[in-house]
Amino acid sequence: MNRALLLAPVIAASFAIASAAQAAGNAEAGKAKSATCVGCHGANGQGVAPNPAIAGQPEAQFVQALKDYKSGAKANPVKRGITATLSDQDMEDLAAYYASLK
């Protein structure tokens, strides 16, 4: 059997692992990107009425919410405008930062 064919699944898995590692959020980078969030959610993500607390929220849930606001699946014109400028990496970084806060 062709050696390249045997190695193809291993190579594909390696790329998948590398992509997942790159997609992981960086809490320090998220902190640096959080200035826009502070006005509504507080300096530590504690929430400023009527806006909810976001500190300690699970990363996957946080990222999904940001993606939903960006796509319009969750209707909120203010959050849609804010998330429109965020990349997937920005979302991952913000999620890592706010998940790290308790």
What would you note in describing this structure?
With 102 residues, this protein is mainly α. Helices cover 67% and strands 0% of the residues. It has a single domain (26-100), classed as Cytochrome Bc1 Complex, Chain D, domain 2, CATH 1.10.760. Helix 2 (27-33) packs across helix 6, helix 4 (59-71) packs across helix 5 (77-83) and helix 4 (59-71) crosses helix 6 (88-100). The radius of gyration is 17 Å and the shape is globular. The N and C termini lie far apart (54 Å).
In short:
This protein has one domain (26-100): Orthogonal Bundle (Cytochrome Bc1 Complex, Chain D, domain 2), CATH 1.10.760.
Shape: globular
DSSP strand content: under 5%
Low-confidence region ranges: 14-21
Question: What order do the SSEs take from the amino end to the carboxyl end, as H and E?
Answer: HHHHHH
Question: In terms of topology, how is this protein built?
Answer:
Blueprint: H1 3-23, H2 27-33, H3 35-41, H4 59-71, H5 77-83, H6 88-100
Which characteristics define this entry?
mainly alpha; Cytochrome Bc1 Complex, Chain D, domain 2; 102 residues
